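Before relying on records like the one below, remember that each one covers exactly one chain. Contacts with other chains, cofactors or solvent are not represented anywhere in the record.
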Amino acid sequence: MANQKVKEGLPRTKEGLPHQAFAIVGDPEAPDTWKLPHHTKAIWRALKDKIGHYRTTDWDRLPLAVAALSPGGYRGKRVEASPEQILEAARHLARHYSENNKEIPDTLRALI
């Protein structure tokens, strides 16, 4: 996928989502480095300032992203990332809970 051709003027995507929809982005130009998607495709509207980004949170995927950050991982596998990336992603995901007036999961509290 790293050699994926991108039409000029169109943003790179992964699963139809821009890099802003992922909690870990190694390189915005390399979709293979994007991990932990947690937004719906409505993120495109948020990027155009049509709606607030907090309204695009994918509540089905967010708990999976949280689990992947935990030491036990999602289905027993933790996301491959540096400690700094894990901390940054945990803080980012915790903000989504706070912005939506939801309780931050203990898993994230332990990481941040």
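Confidence is low (pLDDT under 50) at residues 1-5.
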